[in-house]
């Protein structure tokens, strides 16, 4: 059902500084930068081989990223898994007692439908399911 790790999300305080740093680490600039209004975040995405890194900076104090950094500091925020069909994946995890943080798939960054699973059900790791939105 999960086909691969789609990306790893890293919470950062300053996305411009982090973009420069990760450009040096990965040897390529971000291929995309996107504001997700509903989540109060600005994101940027890097590709390294087949893998992706997502940097997230809060755009308001009510953002989950702001709260995360306040509690735990900068660092790995979530692991995202690619799923071919998010509705089926959500039903599977719901039926197996995992707490989903949203009842309906929601629109995430990078052209994805996403759903998060509570970290307490995943050994402390916020887990994201994401499905590519087909280009129409
Ligand atoms: Zn993500």
Descriptive account of the structure:
The protein has 136 residues and is α+β, with helices and mostly antiparallel strands. The chain is 23% helix and 39% strand. The protein has three helices and eight strands; from the N terminus they run E-H-E-E-E-H-E-H-E-E-E. The chain has helices at 15-26, 64-72, 86-95; strands at residues 4-11, 32-36, 41-48, 51-58, 75-82, 106-108, 112-117, 126-132. Strands 2-3-4-1-5-8-7-6 form an eight-stranded mixed β-sheet. Strand 2 and strand 3 (41-48) form a beta hairpin. It is globular, with a radius of gyration of 15 Å. The relative contact order is 0.20. Bound molecules: zinc ion (ZN). Residues 7, 9, 54, 78, 80, 128 line the site of zinc ion.
How would you summarize this macromolecular structure in one to three sentences?
With 136 residues, the chain is α+β, with helices and mostly antiparallel strands. The chain contains 3 helices and 8 strands, in the order βαβββαβαβββ.
Question: What attributes characterize this protein structure?
Answer:
8-stranded mixed β-sheet; globular; about 40% strand; 3 helices; about 140 residues; binds zinc ion; alpha+beta
